[in-house]
Amino acid sequence: MQQPASVPAALNRVTLILVTYNSAHCLPGLAQHLQRCPHIVVADNASADDTLAQCQRLLPQAQTLANPHNLGFGAANNQALALVQTPFALLLNPDCEITEASIVALLEAAECYPDAAVLAPQLLDNRGRPTLNYGWPRHLWATRGPGAEGPCCVGAACGAVLLLRLEALREVGHFDTGFFLYYEDDDLCARLLAAKQPIVLLPEVRVPHRSRGSTRSPSPWRTEYGRGFHHAQSKLRYCAKYHGLARAQSQRRRWLALAVLNSLARLLLPVPRLLARALGRLIGLWRWQAASVDGTTRLAAPPPHHPHPLK
Q: DSSP 3-state assignment of 289?
């Protein structure tokens, strides 16, 4: 009888972190690649489906955190990161189909680049095409030019899949929980760049990402509304944090005008999903309130039925 292959020693050095919200449909495909990963933490943001039951059945080695309400992407990741006892943590959206081989490749690269605080793979879209999941911080430079052909340092990477060297993050901390959804990964990368902590992209490590596929809400239009709402709120918070309140307030007026025009256009050619998102963006901009002069902002009360933090 053939003996099972031994578990790569590298897997003992990483804890996988999954933030879930109505993500039960993602777990069967993902779990088959994670069976030999000994350290997994699942932070569930009050799923209404059987996500937690699926986790316990498909990933019995996982430690599960059942939040009574949706904390948001950054806060749920921070909650899980606080429990990690391995040198590395791998943030993983449920809609990213990473393989064991890719996890090991990221960890081996971390050994090759000991100064790297974060390592990111190349994400692929639903057709297997490379996506632009890396670049430079939004407030510094526009990302342009050809895609990376080999390992390189970047200024920012999408939070859907990130390998974090936890010791290197002590200086900058984890996610700013003022971002409920969107821009929290941009903010973390901006702080790492300012602290001269390298972010390394590995284009040879490729991970399929079914963007916006990690949640199935019983009310899709509410999910789209929430996406628009939180994107607008987070965009303004990021602008205020890195450009100052005056710039954020000026941009808010401009973006509000554009959001009104966009919502009117969606009413003329109504597609419920896009109309809901446009209205969410409009309300998110309208309800944003600056709280202080130091570049921070207070978020308006979030809408009901928060969408899952999608990357």
A: strand
